């Protein structure tokens, strides 16, 4: 799985913000090759043979954890999963203490998911191996943005000049942030669509257009990316009710009809059917939601190989 | 009788609007003369002479907002360690917040702190007692008895009083004792789980923000109640221009209102939070550069009355955490003056005003007979080299905790000697 040579400016992948357009392009090209590997009957490579990958999940996430695990295993790495219940002890102590303990076990790469923004960065300062951010608080989820980009690129050929509507709970979404950074860097036009209560302060300054009506935001969009509305947000008063939210901000056939005819529908999952997306839309031909899952494994293979591959092991100082 | 003569220094004494080359004569614990007259009169026989040529002789600093861990959190800070940090920073008097364990809401606690300070402290410790029992926000403390015990002000420390009825009664009752009520204002519901200034940067970093309105709304309520009750009210730490405007209006209307700002909010802005460094997690949060600049202007024009270190020692257990889980607060006793001198060096604050806001102004606010070089006053003095370059190093800090916003910062201006009642409690040995 070799696609030329390139190295990221950082030995970690903590977010999209610090990646260059070239970094992203390279990772997507590399992930494209990984898709081929994943579609072979024999999916195993030896790229990370002898390497140790630890998935450290402080927040439950079956999908992302499984995706990273599969990616590591397909590359031949020894993968260990650690789920740390966030309620057991004070989270921060667990994070740093666990990080130091794991560091002493000399892993080659740590994949971390944590409920606090900046947790991956904090951990990266404490350990000697490469760190991949698998989602930190409301901050970033870089591999999700990369897999979304790969999915879009495979459908549309390029990200350049596409209109992508990211809809729903932008405020609490690290997926949205990483996507805003990535799509902006790659020349796509980003629209954010949702109620004002779910829009972060100052978001207009990120080079995006903000819409509070789906009818306006979806018009002539090439990509409709729905975000998960966390159920607890309803009780918090961000939106009055599920039925109200679905009526005005849920994706149904009428709303999707405003987008381009060949628009694709995306969702990072897990979906709340009937809340942010109608079941029919989730299963419609335009939906590429399952494909996103497949691309997720490929993107993570590309990232893991780039950060923990042979050229990085010795230099990594582990 | 011991006699000390500080000679040929630049005496800066805002209590007398004095900025002159002169000498300060100290007999035992008191100042007997401070001004140009003493220059050519020679030294009394047997006097210790300290040549202050090229240096500033100022009143010892009065820090109006200091959190100390003792009692309850001695691993963070003791009265002794805080006093060592204070002395190194030229601070000779400090007002200690009631956020201890147990909370300083009983006369016996005030007496305990004063007793411990007498036994262990290098500088003067002035307790501020809680406004409400246990800082619980509902039941008023015994203002009269607490004042008799030695409390110089009433504050719920880090806590904002949510209940306006309780605050109104507290203010009315405090007025009867001419007691100062000093409050931090942050609307808990509006601030919610916010950890930094609300805005583009918070969104970029994925951290929940706190809008400036969370500070303004309770402040306006407090100011309205101060007007209603006629109480002496002090907004302990403001951070944004809207708050300064509100204070200005209240003052213009003749209400007995004052305001303070922390040295951190005068020196730093939200960009310092980048990198998720928890030492910059403060309450109120660091605002943007425009707000910081506005704070400096409001200080210069007198809207803001005093500058405080808001010294708040936190240890690794509360700081070595992800940003949103860390406790707010930073230490600052040792760096208060040096950081304030940055504003003098950049031309936004005249030296006289800079010294005033950390000496005579807080002394007057808290009713303390310090912060002055007036003959007859206790000889609480800071000798300062305005231009001495130095770098703040955590290994040199005297506080038990290390959470300094100014770690590794380069400073111009340093305290060379600190005297309390004529005794040298700190002398720089570089």
Automatic annotation (TrEMBL), chain A:
Carbamoyl phosphate binds at residues 63-64, 113, 141, 144, 269-270. SUPFAM superfamilies: Aspartate/ornithine carbamoyltransferase. Pathway: Pyrimidine metabolism; UMP biosynthesis via de novo pathway; (S)-dihydroorotate from bicarbonate: step 2/3. It holds the Pfam family OTCace. The keyword Transferase applies. GO terms for biological process: 'de novo' pyrimidine nucleobase biosynthetic process; 'de novo' UMP biosynthetic process; amino acid metabolic process. The keyword Transferase applies. It catalyses: carbamoyl phosphate + L-aspartate = N-carbamoyl-L-aspartate + phosphate + H(+). One of its GO terms (cellular component) is cytosol. GO terms for molecular function: amino acid binding; aspartate carbamoyltransferase activity. Gene3D superfamilies: Aspartate/ornithine carbamoyltransferase. Residues 11-153 form the Aspartate/ornithine carbamoyltransferase carbamoyl-P binding domain. PROSITE patterns: CARBAMOYLTRANSFERASE (PS00097). Keywords: Pyrimidine biosynthesis, Transferase. Its EC number is 2.1.3.2. Residues 160-306 form the Aspartate/ornithine carbamoyltransferase Asp/Orn-binding domain. L-aspartate binds at residues 91, 174, 228. It is an enzyme of class 2 (transferase). HAMAP family: Asp_carb_tr. PANTHER family: ASPARTATE CARBAMOYLTRANSFERASE, ORNITHINE CARBAMOYLTRANSFERASE, MITOCHONDRIAL. Belongs to the aspartate/ornithine carbamoyltransferase superfamily. ATCase family. Heterododecamer (2C3:3R2) of six catalytic PyrB chains organized as two trimers (C3), and six regulatory PyrI chains organized as three dimers (R2). Reversibly catalyzes the transfer of the carbamoyl group from carbamoyl phosphate (CP) to the N(epsilon) atom of ornithine (ORN) to produce L-citrulline. This is Aspartate carbamoyltransferase. The lineage of its organism: Bacteria, Pseudomonadati, Pseudomonadota, Alphaproteobacteria, Hyphomicrobiales.
Automatic annotation (TrEMBL), chain B:
Keywords: Hydrolase, Pyrimidine biosynthesis, Zinc. Pfam families: Amidohydro_3 (PF07969), DHOase (PF12890). Its EC number is 3.5.2.3. GO terms for cellular component: cytoplasm. GO terms for molecular function: allantoinase activity; dihydroorotase activity; metal ion binding. GO terms for biological process: purine nucleobase catabolic process; pyrimidine nucleotide biosynthetic process. Residues 346-426 form the Amidohydrolase domain. It comes from the Bacteria. SUPFAM superfamilies: Composite domain of metallo-dependent hydrolases, Metallo-dependent hydrolases. It is an enzyme of class 3 (hydrolase). Residues 54-240 form the Dihydroorotase catalytic domain. PANTHER family: ALLANTOINASE. This is Dihydroorotase. It comes from Notoacmeibacter ruber.
